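Example 9 (inverse folding). The structure is encoded as follows.
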């Protein structure tokens, strides 16, 4: 493992600060962008740091706008943390049409609501969250620009010898989660075409913020002496701070018809090699199980790099950061990615 160019975060406060530190490109965009911003489904793993970055960038740009986050906010402490930083919070069940209608108007919408984990066994709710709700949101905010999160799962598995799925590839979703996410995209595409709603579809996989992510999953197994399954032997990942910044930039790239862009790192990583890197960093023997399959869930991020921007933290740096975080007993969210799933069941 080569030395990291940037020192890793050493505390939770430093991690949160780094995750929400805006790039100059985001600050510049906030100077150009007109109007308020609402983040729907803000209380997930990525939403809090993304909306904090939006607030910091807007403040540094010297612009006055409301930055609002909407969620059911089951965690009142998380809500207070956002409010302390000047972010307006609104408690609402987005599937409640009256609550959705009552939300403030805003010309800029970031759509992060959705359901993945626990979707097996709760298929009706999965489809309601991932496919019905986008239609309700488009009816409410049809005149706004919308940057909507999607997922690389809609592509299905591709040969590991390839550069990964591209935006022009025909979707081949496996399992009801991925199928419902393709449904989400189709609903946004429909409104982009029929109502001229500017839309960006952000096909993300996989963000890593040191407390969760594929790298964290692998590192924790190596640290605790558990076997690492290499059947799903290849993956992409991206530092969540970079994912936050690039996702915010997607607002300016919303278009009609909807614009689809993959969001992930530029490299295809091998699970076996990453596990061995963690083993060296931890001074531990790596236990491997399984044999690499000839295909995996992979995305080609070259369009994003060329049109939106590139990452600031390399995969090698991120591996070093995760190794440092895990070896020092850094906090985790206890939410594994289940990236090993090959049947689309989550």
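The amino acid assigned to each position is listed next.
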């Amino acid at each position: 493992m080569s030395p990291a160019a940037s020192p890793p975060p050493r505390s939770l406060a430093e991690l949160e600060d780094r995750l929400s530190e805006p790039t100059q490109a985001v600050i510049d965009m906030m100077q150009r962008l007109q109007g308020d911003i609402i983040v729907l489904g803000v209380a997930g793993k990525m939403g809090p740091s993304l909306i904090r970055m939006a607030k910091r960038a807007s403040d540094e740009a010297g612009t006055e706008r409301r930055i609002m986050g909407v969620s059911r906010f089951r965690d009142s402490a998380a809500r207070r943390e956002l409010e302390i930083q000047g972010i307006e919070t609104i408690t609402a069940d987005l599937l409640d049409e009256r609550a959705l209608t009552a939300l403030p108007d805003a010309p800029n919408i970031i759509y992060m609501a959705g359901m993945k984990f626990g979707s097996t066994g709760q298929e009706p709710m999965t489809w309601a969250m991932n496919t019905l709700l986008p239609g309700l949101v488009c009816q409410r905010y049809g005149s706004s620009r919308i940057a909507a999160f999607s997922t690389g799962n809609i592509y299905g598995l591709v040969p590991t010898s390839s550069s990964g799925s591209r935006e022009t590839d025909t979707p081949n979703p496996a399992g009801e989660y991925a199928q419902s996410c393709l449904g989400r995209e189709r609903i946004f595409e429909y409104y982009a075409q029929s109502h001229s709603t500017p839309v960006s579809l952000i096909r993300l996989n996989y963000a890593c913020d040191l407390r969760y992510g594929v790298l964290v999953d692998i590192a924790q197994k190596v640290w605790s002496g558990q076997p690492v399954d290499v059947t799903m032997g290849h993956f992409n990942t991206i530092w969540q701070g970079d994912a936050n910044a690039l996702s915010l930039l997607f607002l300016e790239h919303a278009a009609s018809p909807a614009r689809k862009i993959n969001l992930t790192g530029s490299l295809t990583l091998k699970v076996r090699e990453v596990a061995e890197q963690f083993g060296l960093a931890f001074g531990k023997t790596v236990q491997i199980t399984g044999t690499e399959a000839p295909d995996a869930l992979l995305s080609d991020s070259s369009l994003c790099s060329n049109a939106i921007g590139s990452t600031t933290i390399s995969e090698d740096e991120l591996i070093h950061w995760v190794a440092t975080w895990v070896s020092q007993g850094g906090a985790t969210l206890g939410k594994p990615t289940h990236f090993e799933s090959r049947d689309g069941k989550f």
